Amino acid sequence: MVFNIEDITKFREGNRLEAKLASGGLPSSLWETYSAFANTDGGLILLGVKEKKDGSFEIAGVENPDSLIKSFWDTVNNQNKVSINILLNKHVYAKEIDDKNVVFIEVPRADRQLRPVYIGKDILSGTYHRNGEGDYHCTKEEVSEFFRDASVLSMDTKILTEMDESVFCQDTIKSYRNVFNNTHINHVWESLDNTDFLRKIGAMGFSKETGTLHPTAAGLLMFGYEYEIVREFPLYFLDYQEKYDDAIRWTDRIVSSSGEWSGNIFDFFFKIATKLTADIKRPFKLEGFFRVDDTNVHKAVREALVNTLVNADYYGRQGLVVQKYPNKFVFANPGSFRIPLNEAFDGGTSDPRNATILKMFAMLDIGERAGSGIPGIIATWEKEFKMKPEYVQSFSPSRVKTFLNLNDLQFAKTSDNVQENVRENADVQENVLDNVQEKDRRKIILDLLRKDNTISIREIAEKLQMATKTIQRDFDKLKVKNIIRRVGADKGGHWEIIADNGE
Q1: Residues forming a β-bridge with 403
Q2: How far apart are CA 79 and CA 424, in angstroms?
């Protein structure tokens, strides 16, 4: 903790600084601040400093700093007074300023395994957090969050013994496995049945209590139906909003509770990831067969979305909300940061609330696993927009908001512009298709049919980043040449390769 104390009179109380006169010994409010700083982001307590009416500081000094420091150590080490001492000798010291003694107490943020830090014997009445310039009692809900975060294991490893595999949406699992197989060609897990595959990725776990496999919290959130998810997470809610017109509440909205789709976080990610970045300017180029038009801005927006999903406390209130405005993105999730903000900004330290979910996304090459996600977003925004993202943490209830602001050159401002961009992208993509060798394209289609003969034309188009009508034309030609045929109905049937004549 670094503070410039050359001119202490310029200090002002804030989220990490508290001044106390301490003229009659240790003030009782000192311990509320100790608890608050330890449970939030740490801070500096000054004893022998008076706060004036204008908010500035005046050095008053303390008479006997050594006696005051001894009294502090006696109390902080008394578990009847304070739940735990998280300080070292170097954190408490006296300095002479303008011929007066000031005691400095540097309180670090407590490791999550040690929180909540509370005073007295009643954890509910003795737990505080820092919000602005004051120390506030934590609610019962916030104390419960501390206990959930204190576990050595990631929150989403919990095995849900009252549930079985029927809570999963099979379409979601199929979609996940398609992306996984496309990302990991010929992976050894490709031949596994769904149960074994889900166990490998952490979506199911063995319970010693029941002697059988059950979904994990990660598996339920990632692959479950919304009505099953809320059995474990009653306050679970995902909300995506596009707001292009101030005259109406939103121009597009997707919520997990609509009943029109699964409502799980995997499908939510893929439903909104493209919408979020659809109208950000992008280059156009080809790498071999595939169109490549991703930019660092697109990647940063997806990273912010993944961060929001994997760091959310799904037991918390107000749900997870993603908003797209003409000039900014806003990502909000229940739950506080599990590491100090400065460590998150510096990178190299990763402590996601839902580490298994992060691993599941990382297996698809989505999301960072080495603590470099936030620094990457910051670096991109500084380079592209000459500004930093904003991260705001609030309490009662605990919540983190991420603001990614945009400028006029990078973002379309109206829904009409968005639709025009979509049409332009479709036209450009259609032109590119003419430059791709049909023969090569059909070879890829046949390879995909050999791996999954139930795959749809739309799914193949998505894999190849092609227009659906182009893939439909390829299928029509393959059928005319008696290379493939459809067996059964469009829904529930499959494709059969009749002959391979060099296609």
Answers
A1: 330, 390
A2: 67
Residue 410 Cα distances to 297, 328, 391, 402, 416, angstroms: 10, 11, 21, 19, 16
- What tokens were used for 277? 């970045």
Domain boundaries, the chain: 8-150, 157-405, 436-497
Bridge partner residues of 283 (DSSP) = none
CB under 8 Å to 481, separation ≥6 — which residues? 501, 503
Length of the chain: 503
Question: In terms of DSSP H, where are the helices of 434-467?
Answer: 438-451, 457-464
Strand partners, 331: 322, 402
What is the CATH number assigned to the segment(s) 436-497? 1.10.10.10
Is the link from the previous residue into 116 a cis peptide, with omega within 30 of 0? yes
Dihedrals φ, ψ of 50, to 5°?
-105, 135
Give percent above pLDDT 90 in the chain.
45
Domain 8-150: give its CATH code.
Answer: 3.30.950.30
Q: How many CA atoms lie within 13 A of 204 on its CB side?
A: 21
Return the H-helix or E-strand segment holding 75.
helix 65-76
Place of tokens 């004051």: 134
Q: Where are the beta strands (DSSP E) in 342-421?
A: 390-394, 399-405
Per residue in 180-202, pLDDT (tens digit) is: 998 898 999 999 999 999 999 99
pLDDT greater than 50 at residue 470: yes
CA dist 71 → 48, 74, 78, 252, 379 (Å): 15, 5, 11, 60, 46
Is the pLDDT confidence value at 476 over 80?
yes
344 exposure class (CB count in 10 Å sphere: 0-12, 13-18, 19+): buried
- Six-digit token pair at 226? 């919304």
Where do we find the tokens 């954890």? 123
CB 265 within 8 A of CB 363: no
Per residue in 307-318, pLDDT (tens digit) is 999 999 999 988
Architecture of domain 157-405: 2-Layer Sandwich (3.30)
**The pTM of the whole model exceeds 0.70:** no
Residue from 80, 81, 76, 101 nearest 91 by CA: 76
